[in-house]
Design a protein that fits this description.
With 318 residues, the protein is of the alpha+beta class. It has twelve helices and eleven strands.
Length: 318
């Protein structure tokens, strides 16, 4: 069982969740803590692999696939699917025994994979695929209440840009080089970005800002929720009338416990992932005010996270 991080370490993580590229001096000012302490603890978190800051490019339309299979095949099937470069996340769910996968349609031959390849795996009983129509929240937006409103305001660089489900734009060579560098290290300095892109530092900063504003690139902080005190993750599929989808989706996205909220083209029009302290906390979430506007809820415990934000979990923990 993972030990929960210290209060200061959790607050440093919270600062990075607001701005993953914030300097240690900016973090120290926002938290009102000594710079040397914040810088030292922050470097330990990053160098240990407990926390990672990564850049993720917008790869266009996505789809959520649920694979129902025999319980004995859950673990191996999840790991096989996670190896595909077009897969964003892979969760193992209980009740029913299934694997939940989000994929980038541009990198994942959806028709072939869902009609031929995945059904051919031993133990697979059913495959369903639902395109994502809109994101209300992704892991890039998750701020689980670790900071006060005042501390958060000191770190916010501006309004967040919604992740798009439209076709991705074609990037020029310099932008592509910047994105690739940030995919390796989301906190790469402007000097490092300028060097790989063959431009000046001011130009690299401007290009990075433009990429973020256009929604071509998002910065995400990868951290096991258990390190922050959230011992349980759940996935909830939600029946919702079309006229209520936006109101319900925005209400869920406003909850600090929600990590991911999306509208789907399918029978269950919303999907949400939550991080909670314990089962009583889950119960409170499922009886919250937002449920009055929703239809039937289909909650499931996430028993294993194999891939998150395009990164294999084993690779993060190594």
């Amino acid at each position: 069982m993972l030990d929960v991080l210290s209060e200061l370490d959790r607050r440093i993580v919270g600062a990075l969740q607001v701005d993953g590229r914030a300097s240690w001096s900016a973090v120290a000012r926002a938290l009102d803590e000594p710079l040397r302490t914040v810088a030292r603890r922050g470097r330990v978190l990053l160098e240990s692999g407990m926390v990672s800051v990564v850049g993720l490019r917008n790869l266009g339309p996505t789809c959520v696939i649920e694979v129902t299979c025999k319980p004995s095949r859950l673990e191996s099937l999840a790991r096989e699917l996670a190896e595909h470069p077009g897969v964003v996340y892979v969760f193992v769910l209980a009740n029913p025994s299934s694997v939940l996968v989000e994929v980038h349609e541009q990198l994942f031959d959806l028709g072939t994979m869902t009609l031929s390849v995945i059904p051919a795996y031993a133990g697979v009983l059913e495959v369903s695929a639902t395109p994502v129509l809109h994101y209300f929240k992704t892991n890039a937006d998750w701020q689980p209440g670790l900071l006060s409103a005042a501390e958060t305001a000191l770190l916010e660089a501006g309004p967040r840009v919604e992740e798009s489900t439209a076709l991705p734009e074609q990037l020029d060579a310099a932008d592509s080089a910047i994105v690739q560098a940030l995919e390796r290290d989301g906190r790469a300095s402007a000097a490092e970005l300028a060097e790989v892109a063959g431009v000046t530092e001011p130009t690299a900063r401007k290009r990075l800002g433009d990429l973020q504003q256009r929604g071509a690139l998002a910065t995400r902080v990868l951290v096991d929720p258990r390190l922050l005190g959230f011992r349980i993750e759940t996935c909830v599929r939600i029946d919702c009338a079309p006229a209520q989808v936006r109101e319900v989706g925005e209400a869920i996205a406003a909850l600090p416990e929600s990590r991911y909220v999306a509208e789907l083209l399918g029978e269950r029009s919303l999907i949400a992932h939550f991080a909670a302290d314990d089962l009583p906390h889950v119960r409170r979430l499922l009886h919250d005010e937002w449920t009055r506007l929703a239809g039937r809820l289909h909650p499931a415990l996430i028993t294993r996270v194999v891939k998150r934000s395009g990164r294999l979990i084993d690779a993060l923990e190594a």
